[in-house]
Specification:
Distance between the termini: 63 Å
Strand content: 5-15%
Shape: globular
Radius of gyration: 25 Å
Order of helices and strands: HHHHHHHHHHHHHEEEEEHEE
Largest sheet: 5 strands, mixed
Number of helices: 14
Length: 350
């Protein structure tokens, strides 16, 4: 007899299987046909990418972290150089964070580099430098999230765990005609469960890569190439919508806040002062010219003088305007107002 927990899990699995059958244009008995078509397409059409030519879990892990929120063509410029500088997980763990961030420079989303470095240290310290093969073990390593754990477990170790990234969400939303916001917790959970039910457990790594490749090259955000899709016969959006690109549902755009920031170039006998940001938070561990948000009713010069005195304990004379820089981050925009400053006195408090 099953326990109450087992009964709930059994009911949930049965419900999902029923939903899978209702939402697909084939029965779950025909699911192997879909899987075979997708895998055959992937074998014939996949892009020639260097991380697909290795089974080294470390190299696969590095590639998967780099590929989060970054297109493959940009990652190509960094992947080989990073592995040349840090050829093993032990070399990465031994490295100074500054060196890791420098190697990552220009790739963006620097928290990925910090998490990679932190996780490498933990794996060397707690797992003797051997990357865990099991998804659950990988997830327990600080710095490795659910997506990365699933990707490494499936691609490097053939563990039957489905990955769900932006590309996969798009494919699933169209395949199953999911007309709900994928950012909502319940919808995201359903997408993950459908991905797991769809997964070819005999070739989980290849299947996961095939799903991601399909989203990246065929089932694209705009103008999907449905006529070239190997599984369009089974796609609900293709057969029921005039435009499958309507899915996934896009959440309402929030107004992007804008901030005016003042920053100072502090000069002293030909040298310019920079300081390092705290490890936690936006752009943690990176170097900056000291500055702050300009408060209502405050000038850029006043903001610079206030912030430099408060944060690094220096007295400066704020001088001529140097330049203005406009920049957009993921969730906000800034205009940076930069002034020359002349060091007067004080010892920097870092």
């Amino acid at each position: 007899p099953r326990s109450s927990v087992e009964n709930r899990l059994f009911s949930r699995t049965a419900y999902l299987n029923d939903e899978l059958e209702k939402r697909m244009r084939i029965s779950k008995k025909s699911l192997p046909t879909l899987q075979a078509k997708l895998l055959t397409w992937f074998a014939e059409e996949k892009r020639d990418l260097p991380w697909r030519k290795t089974k080294d879990p470390y190299a696969i892990w590095v590639s998967e972290v780099m590929l989060q929120q970054t297109q493959a063509r940009k990652v190509l410029d960094y992947y080989q150089r990073f592995l040349q500088k840090f050829p093993s997980i032990r070399s990465l763990a031994r490295a100074d964070l500054d060196d890791v961030l420098k190697a990552w420079e220009g790739l963006g989303y620097y928290a990925r580099a910090r998490n990679l470095h932190r996780a490498a240290k933990e794996i060397v310290a707690s797992h003797r430098g051997k990357i865990p093969a099991e998804y659950e073990q990988l997830q327990r390593v600080k710095g490795i999230g659910p997506y990365t754990a699933a990707a490494v477990a499936s691609i490097a170790f053939s563990q039957p765990k489905a990955v769900v990234d932006g590309n996969v969400i798009r494919v699933l939303s169209r395949l199953f005609l999911i007309e709900k916001n994928p950012q909502e917790k319940e919808t995201r959970a359903s997408l993950s469960e459908f991905a797991q039910l769809l997964l070819d457990k005999s070739a989980p790594g290849d299947f996961n890569e095939a799903m991601m490749e399909l989203g990246a090259t065929i089932c694209t955000p705009r103008k999907p190439k449905c006529l070239l899709c190997p599984i369009s016969d089974y796609c609900m959006a293709y057969h029921q919508l005039d435009n499958p690109a309507r899915l996934p549902v896009k959440p309402k755009k929030k107004e992007v806040p804008h901030y005016d920031i003042a920053a100072g170039l502090i000069w002293d006998e030909g040298y310019v002062f920079i300081d390092r940001r705290k490890e936690d938070g936006l752009l943690g561990g990176l170097w900056e010219f000291p500055g702050a948000k300009i408060r209502p009713g405050e000038t850029a010069q006043e903001a610079i003088k206030r912030e430099i005195r408060k944060e690094i304990d220096l007295e400066v004379e704020v001088g001529d305007f140097f330049m203005e820089v406009k920049h957009a981050y993921t969730h906000f925009k800034i205009t940076l107002h930069v002034h020359h400053c002349l060091y007067q006195n004080g010892e920097p408090k870092l």
